[in-house]
Amino acid sequence: MALNQEWVLRWTELATRAAQTHREELTALDRAIGDADHGENLDRGFTAVSEALSQTPQEDPAQTFRTIAMTLMSKVGGAAGPLLGTAYLRLSSAAKPAMEAGDVAAMIEAASAGIQARGRATEGEKTMVDAWAPASRAAQEAAQSGADCVGVLQAAASAAANGAQNTLDMVATKGRASYLGERSAGHLDPGAVSSSYLLDAALKAAD
Ligand code: ADP
Ligand code: MG
Ligand code: MG
Q: Of 67, 132, 164, 175, which is most buried by a Cβ count within 10 Å?
């Protein structure tokens, strides 16, 4: 079954809830290798997103993703705001009123490419790219082998969770964590972990 605007709104609701639930955990991860604000940044951003979406009638996925992008860019701040804002802008451009498995994979690929372009980061630098890039690959493989929308999202969410775990041993070379050099190893990247929660919310919203 194709995904539609109802999925987008449900995804956003679950993402907002995840940002609340994992707020302390994400901030603790950021305390180890950053400035201890990632959970607060995301929670503040998605709370503002919920308000923004409830204030204007939402017509279609493209409009909703654009509203989310603008709100995250203005409310999250720091590194994550512009990066996630760019991801949602790319989702907006790639979204359709009815999204099939191939469209969903293309959207995840677009978001991942947007983050990489904005942050000038590649895989292995201990950033959110280490969740998004494997998610994008897994989503495309799933779509090509005939998975439906839920199958594509399952592949993406599980690859993102693995990717986030794989940041544990990485040495950061982008973002604040890079100031720690070798001492950044042994900690999970907060942005990779939160990105895996976002993709998990996308899956749960479709299930
Ligand atoms: P700040 O570092 O400004 O306090 P946050 O704590 O909200 O912002 O977000 C930090 C996260 O942003 C990191 O864990 C990492 O995943 C991500 N990040 C930082 N710099 C980059 C970059 N250049 N490219 C991709 N992701 C990045
Ligand atoms: Mg921070
Ligand atoms: Mg900060």
A: 132
